[in-house]
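User: quick one, sequence for these C-alpha cells?
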C-alpha cells in the first residue's frame, strides 16, 4: 500500500468512544473528547481525557522536571471512536461531499465533510 492510509477523523474533531469498557466499570465508553493528534500509520487517535494511563517517568537531567508517576492519554484505535454530530450531540459516520464551484469562470471541485445522521457540515 503506497502512501499513508486515509482516516475520516481529523485533529480537533469532537469524538465519542463507542466500544470498550463501560463508565460504571471504570472504562471510557460513552465519553466525549477532542482529538489531540492523529496517527494514520497505526490507525490511532489521541483523545483528550480518554484512555488515561499511568506512566512511570525516570528523573532527568538537573533543571528538568523530576521523575515520578504521571497520568497521560494513550492512543486509541480509530474504530473505537465516532465523530459527534454537531446537531444531535450523538455519534455519527462521516460522509465526503464533492461540489463543483465556479470561481472566476473556472470550475473547481470542493470537498466537504458532513454528518450522515443530520447532513450538517463538520
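Assistant:
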Amino acid at each position: 500500500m503506497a502512501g499513508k492510509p486515509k482516516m475520516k477523523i481529523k485533529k480537533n474533531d469532537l469524538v465519542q468512544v463507542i466500544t470498550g469498557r463501560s463508565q460504571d466499570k471504570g472504562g471510557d465508553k460513552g465519553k466525549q473528547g477532542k482529538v489531540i493528534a492523529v496517527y494514520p500509520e497505526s490507525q490511532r487517535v489521541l483523545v483528550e481525557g480518554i484512555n488515561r494511563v499511568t506512566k512511570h517517568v525516570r528523573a532527568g537531567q538537573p533543571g528538568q522536571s523530576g521523575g515520578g508517576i504521571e497520568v497521560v492519554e494513550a492512543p486509541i484505535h480509530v474504530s473505537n471512536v465516532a465523530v459527534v454530530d454537531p446537531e444531535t450531540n450523538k455519534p455519527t459516520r462521516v460522509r465526503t461531499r464533492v461540489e463543483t464551484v465556479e470561481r472566476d469562470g473556472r470550475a473547481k471541485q470542493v470537498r466537504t465533510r458532513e454528518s450522515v445522521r443530520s447532513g450538517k457540515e463538520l
